[in-house]
Amino acid sequence: MMKAESIKSWLQSLSFRTGVIVLLxxxxxYVLSFAQMLLPISPTAKGVLWTILFGLAKTCQYGxxxxxxxxGYNRVKNWIKRRKDDGED
Length: 89
Hints:
Strand content: under 5%
Shape: flat
Distance between the termini: 54 Å
Number of domains: 1
Oligomer: single chain
């Protein structure tokens, strides 16, 4: 088993692009977690599906944010700064 710190370190070593892709993967899981309620299946099955799909969505969300980390923060910060500087000229 990997320790939590080693998992976090490994995730943060992944690229910005990977972080964005993982973060975007949470969108279909959120949609599916609620859309499956329209299926004609038992309430128990709906609850199980919702738990699994919502859990996958949260896992992708937090995993993507961990991968983005400081690098993602700096990219967004620099992008905002460039846009602000371009607007003032």
